[in-house]
Amino acid sequence: MEQVRQTILDPKMLELLVCPQCKGPLSYDETAQELVSKKAKLAYPVRDGVPILLISEARQLDD
């Protein structure tokens, strides 16, 4: 069984990151390992501590 590592993002870095689609703020969901844009309704993955801020990699959030 593969073990999933939890990554904690630097709060200072999180303050600087914005959603590439709407330029709005992102919040970090540590459990899902995603950066969430509530405005764009997208969740961007964080892999090995690296945010993948590509719209093509984002997951659409349900309402």
Proportion of beta-strand residues: 25-35%
Count up the domains.
1
- Radius of gyration, whole Å: 11 Å
Unreliable spans: none
- Overall, the morphology is globular
Structural class: mainly beta
The main pleated sheet reads as: 5 strands, antiparallel
Euclidean distance between termini CA atoms: 32 Å
User: Could you please say which CATH topology applies here?
Assistant: N-terminal domain of TfIIb
Level-2 CATH architecture: Single Sheet
Average predicted confidence as pLDDT = 90
Compute the number of strand runs. 5
* Helical coverage, percent range: under 10%
Number of helices: 1
What features would you highlight for this structure?
63 residues, mainly beta, N-terminal domain of TfIIb, 5-stranded antiparallel β-sheet, 1 helix, globular
What does this structure look like?
The chain has one helix spanning 11-16, and strands at residues 27-29, 34-37, 42-47, 50-51, 59-60. Strands 1, 2, 3, 4 and 5 form a five-stranded antiparallel β-sheet that branches. The protein is globular, with a radius of gyration of 11 Å. It has one domain: N-terminal domain of TfIIb (Single Sheet), CATH 2.20.25.10. It is built from one helix and five strands, in the order αβββββ. β2 (34-37) and β3 form a beta hairpin. The mean pLDDT is 90. It has 63 residues and is mainly beta.
Task: Please specify the SSE layout and strand pairing.
Elements: H1 11-16, E1 27-29, E2 34-37, E3 42-47, E4 50-51, E5 59-60
Antiparallel strand pairs: 1-2, 2-3, 3-4, 3-5
Short description, anyone?
The chain is mainly beta and 63 residues long. Helix content is 10%, strand content 27%.
